[in-house]
UniProtKB/TrEMBL annotation:
GO BP: DNA repair
Listed PROSITE patterns: HELICASE_ATP_BIND_1, HELICASE_CTER
Record-linked Pfam families: DEAD, DEAD_assoc, Helicase_C, WHD_Lhr
Positions of the Helicase C-terminal domain: 256-401
Span of domain Helicase ATP-binding: 37-215
InterPro entries referenced in this protein's UniProt entry, alphabetically: ATP-dep_Helicase, DEAD/DEAH_box_helicase_dom, Helicase_ATP-bd, Helicase_C-like, Lhr-like, Lhr-like_DEAD/DEAH_assoc, Lhr_WH_dom, P-loop_NTPase
Native organism: Halobacterium jilantaiense
Entry GO MF terms: ATP binding; ATP hydrolysis activity; catalytic activity, acting on DNA; DNA binding; helicase activity
UniProtKB keywords: ATP-binding, DNA damage, DNA repair, DNA-binding, Helicase, Hydrolase, Isomerase, Nucleotide-binding
Homology family: Belongs to the Lhr helicase family. Lhr-Core subfamily.
Name of the molecule in the record: ATP dependent helicase, Lhr family
């Protein structure tokens, strides 16, 4: 298209639209409008890829509105659907489209889960011309008798934030939903609105089912400007650290962000997790900074309140998570701060792209980093973003629970239909074009066995059954059905907030700490029956990240590889005699940063060169060992390293019959191995393991993981095989796995875990490269500066069924290294916290000489308080009684009682049972403890 044609884009619209544009003050089209409106006004399918704030909504809707008011006017039914992934966008779009509707004489309405029955009936009886809705509500609409009549008139479907949907099962479900809509309305125009993606043609194919699609992509890279910096700690930061009870480094981050907010009018501050938002928000609150907090765990009312206050200029800054990545209108942004590496190029572009957007204005963003890994990663991402090197979208191809869900949908649509007809509808959708017919039939038969639909194999038909209606409306969404746990401060007798079930199942245990509502809490107990997490407040004197940091955004392979290239480049310069200042200055010519940040980022590389050990890079793996810790330094990103870590853990576990702990990040895999395992064993596995066997080995090891069981339960619900489940019931989930192992339910659960967490193809390529000599592997017999540089959150212990001796030894060492609070219940004047291994054979109070010493968890302050507050003659509450029973066991049995009481989930009653078995062999004593822990885990699932 020529420039003159582009500038004349509004000429492709009719007189009514042009008059409305003039009234609205739209005199010159934005770049997306200039380039897209001619094609869209011509009725073609289109994908508009542009930053938020560039008029994308009007780009899509002006041609749609023009079509509705042209000719004979809008149809009797729904003329256009505007599908958004968030209800917040529903509200935002309604406000933006209402003016156009009123001006053009079109009826615009919103429909989602909270729409009143009265409004729903009104929409069914008299459909609006434009309906703003969600993917899930569209699923419900497709089955309503009157609504289906209205949907038969649909001529346009606009899908907002299509990049978010393309990589999720929600999007896979929507893609089939649109094909079901085709059965009613015939082919309709499809328009997608997307943030920057690496493969727009793939997203366009997802949107249209492979039909033709115009790609209108606005160049974002040339209109963004980044700076990556690590704030230098000042004397003022030292003073602020004391005031905030935090570290000087954290204080410098808070100060740097506050300065950026003060220098600009309206600043978004993005963080990667809700917990970080809460932690930073609490510190800004202490300082009285005019900065709000916005994330998905807040109530709808709280989110709307801060959105409105920020848009009105009442707040100077808004601290937010990905909740603000999508196009919620909060007014003009003039700067974006990204706290810590954004992890992905597309995420940085999307976030910083929210700033600016006046004509020819550059969007500006600052990334605040805090450690070498983080800084190098942010620099790599900023450079890649400036060059438009964006990650590709991982479309959810072939998800079988989505197929199951939509087979039921087709049965709801038609009552009864031929199996080939349902298959044809589903495989028109792009994510399911390669779905084998045999697999489709297996899924249908699984639904038949679960009495969700009826399959007549003789007639080859699928029809509704008694359970169809109930299943369908209980499963309108492909978002996993998870419960929430109420968080209670038991001392204050009040509810603090809520936690997601997956969060609790995977990470919660007594002693774990997290931040909520700007305060830090320690878990004291988890009540499964009432679904409560009981907590006690604690102070955060060090400012360290709490033990729960939320789910990490995975770092892609391409970003991690560039970090490896940066390390190699700097390592060569240091080895050639370059000084830190000189190498840092050279880096500032290639990356958007300053000397101080570059020196900090490259410090590990400099120290590693001084050590005289090889640098892990894009073409070298370095394996190092210190004691029982082996680290595989590999610049491969989260998913490939997660795959290699699980592979090595499984193979080492099979060889030794022992547990192998793994901790994975984008640049290293840390293994906690039993005695006798060396770094050379890891290298041997890299050289010997058949790359073609990676997937099979991992699937076998997954059977021992809670991740697969949790995913299996969620998938089973989508197949109608499970109505509801208790997420932490280990016995139930294990039985479920056994019952479903040879079904499509199990196949989909495995596929889901592989799709979400692992990269088998990349890990296999790494093994190929190692074995072909294209990727060096070197062994270092000590911990290195880079290898010690970072740990991710959460270690999963994969325990082979035949583990015995080494497991017992691991349990012993773990308990001996645990901390215990000794407390004299006789005088109540003495308490001491120490490691279990340092406890005397018969603990004794140094104040009164009593041996009635309770062995408590280090955070059991409330127990001590309760005992001290109890008069000897008063009736004792249960908590106090347990403390006295605890002390009686320690008085009778000494240190063995302390060991047993320090085990996970082993209270006084079980500790007494273990001790009273009078095991002479110490290993048998720890085996009994381990069995009690396992029994506890089967009902509580946290140790």
């Amino acid at each position: 298209m020529s420039e003159s044609e582009g500038m004349d884009a509004f000429a492709h619209l009719g007189d009514e639209l042009r008059r409305a544009l003039s009234e609205r003050g739209f005199t010159t089209p934005t770049e997306p409008q200039r380039r897209a409106i001619p094609a869209l006004a011509d009725g073609r399918n289109g994908l508009v890829v542009a930053p938020t704030g560039t008029g994308k909504t009007e780009t899509a809707m002006l041609p749609v509105l023009n079509s509705l008011v042209s000719g004979d006017g809008p149809p009797e039914g729904f003329g256009a659907l505007y599908v958004t992934p968030l209800r917040a966008l529903n509200r935002d779009m309604r406000e933006r489209l209402d003016w156009w509707g009123e001006t053009l004489g079109l009826d615009v309405d919103v429909r989602h889960g909270d729409t009143t029955d009265y409004q729903r009936k009104k929409q069914a009886d008299d459909p609006p011309d434009v309906l703003v809705t969600t993917p899930e509500t569209l699923q419900a609409m497709l089955t309503g008798e009157k609504l289906r009549d209205g949907l038969a008139d649909v001529e346009h479907v606009v899908v907002d934030e299509v990049h978010e949907l393309a990589g999720a099962k929600r999007g896979a479900q929507l893609s089939i939903g649109m094909e079901r809509l085709v059965e009613l309305a015939g082919d309709f125009q499809r328009v997608g609105l997307s943030a920057t993606v690496g493969d727009p043609h793939e997203v366009g194919a997802f949107l249209t089912g492979g039909r033709g699609c115009e790609i209108i992509e606005v160049d974002v890279a040339s209109k963004v400007d980044f700076e990556v910096r690590e704030p230098e700690v000042t004397d003022a930061d030292e003073r602020m650290a004391n005031e905030l009870m935090t570290s000087p480094e954290m204080a410098s981050h808070v100060r740097a962000i506050r300065e950026l907010v003060e220098r600009h009018d309206s600043v978004l501050i993005f963080v990667n997790t809700r917990q970080t938002a809460e932690a930073l928000g609490s510190r800004f609150k202490e300082l009285g900074a005019n900065i709000g907090v916005h994330h998905g765990s807040l109530s709808k009312e709280a989110r709307i309140d801060v959105e409105d206050r920020f848009k009105a200029g009442e707040l100077d800054g808004l601290l937010c998570t990905s909740s603000m990545e999508l196009g919620i209108d909060v007014g003009r942004i003039d700067h974006v701060v990204q706290y810590a590496s954004p992890r992905e190029v597309k995420r940085l572009l999307q976030r910083v792209g929210r700033a600016g957007h006046r004509r020819d204005e550059v969007s500006e963003g600052t990334v605040i980093t805090g450690n070498p890994d983080d800084a190098l990663e942010a620099l790599a991402i900023a450079r890649r973003a400036s060059h438009g090197d964006v990650e590709e979208t991982q479309i959810h191809h072939g998800s079988l629970d989505t197929v199951a869900n939509q087979i039921v949908g087709v049965a709801m649509d038609f009552g009864e239909t031929e199996a080939w007809h349902a298959y044809k509808i589903i495989t028109r959708a792009y994510p399911f074009k390669q779905l084998p017919e045999e697999t489709f039939r297996e899924v249908a038969m699984e639904l038949h066995r679960n009495r969700v639909v009826y399959v007549d194999e003789d007639e080859d038909t699928i029809s509704k059954s008694g359970g169809t209606w109930q299943y369908y409306y209980a499963n309108l969404s492909m978002i996993p059905d998870e419960e929430t746990y109420d968080v209670y401060d038991m001392a204050a007798g009040r509810q603090v907030g809520t936690l997601d079930e997956r969060f609790v199942v995977n990470f919660a245990e007594p002693g774990a700490t997290f931040v909520q509502r700007g305060e830090m809490w320690r878990i004291t107990n988890i009540d499964e029956d009432d679904q409560q997490v009981e907590v006690s407040p604690i102070e955060d004197p060090t400012g360290e990240v709490p033990s729960w940091t939320g789910q990490e955004i995975p770092v892609p392979y391409e970003v991690a590889k560039e970090v490896g290239e940066m390390r190699a480049s700097a390592g060569d310069q240091f080895a050639a005699g370059g000084t830190e200042n000189a190498v840092a200055r050279e880096f500032t010519t290639r990356y958007p940063t300053d000397d101080y940040t570059a020196r900090g980022a490259l410090g590990q590389v400099s120290r590693q060169v001084e050590q005289g050990v090889p640098i892990p890079s894009d073409d070298r793996l370095v394996v190092e060992q210190a004691g029982k810790t082996i680290v595989l330094n590999a610049c491969l990103g989260h998913e490939a390293n997660e795959t290699l870590g699980r592979l090595l853990s499984a193979l080492l576990g099979q060889r030794t019959g022992s547990s192998v702990g793994i901790d994975v990040g984008p640049y290293r895999v840390e293994l906690e191995v039993p005695a006798g395992v060396s770094a050379d064993d890891v290298v041997d596995l890299l050289h010997e393991t058949d790359p073609g066997h990676v997937e099979a080995i991992l699937e076998l090891s997954l059977k021992q993981s809670e991740t697969l069981k949790f995913t299996l339960a969620q998938v089973a619900a989508k197949f109608g095989a499970l109505k509801r489940w208790k997420g932490r019931d280990g016995v139930g989930l294990s039985r479920l796995l056994g019952a479903l192992e040879d079904t499509p339910v199990y196949d989909e659960a495995v596929r889901e875990v592989f799709h979400t967490d692992l990269d088998v193809e990349r890990a296999s390529e790494v093994l190929d490269a190692v074995q072909a000599g294209d990727l060096d592997v070197e062994v270092v017999g000590e911990r290195t500066a880079i290898g010690s540089g970072g740990r991710s959150s959460g270690t999963e212990l994969l325990t082979p069924e035949n583990a015995d001796a080494s497991v017992v030894q691991t349990v012993k060492e773990r308990i001996q290294d645990d901390r215990v609070k000794l407390f004299c219940v006789h005088c109540t004047d003495w308490e001491q916290e120490t490691k279990v291994r340092r406890v005397a054979d018969q603990p004794e109070c140094p104040r009164c000489g009593s041996t009635r010493i309770a062995a408590l968890s280090p955070w059991a302050d409330e127990v001590v308080t309760a005992v001290r507050a109890t008069d000897k003659d008063d009736e004792q509450d249960e908590q106090t009684q347990r403390a006295f029973r605890n002390a009686s066991i320690v008085q009778s049995h000494g240190k063995p009682a302390v060991v047993a009481l320090s085990a996970r989930g082993v209270g006084p009653r079980n500790a007494a049972r273990v001790i009273n078995r009078h095991r002479e062999d110490e290993a048998d004593f720890y085996r009994d403890i381990l069995e009690r822990e396992r029994e506890y885990a089967r009902t509580k699932a946290f140790w």
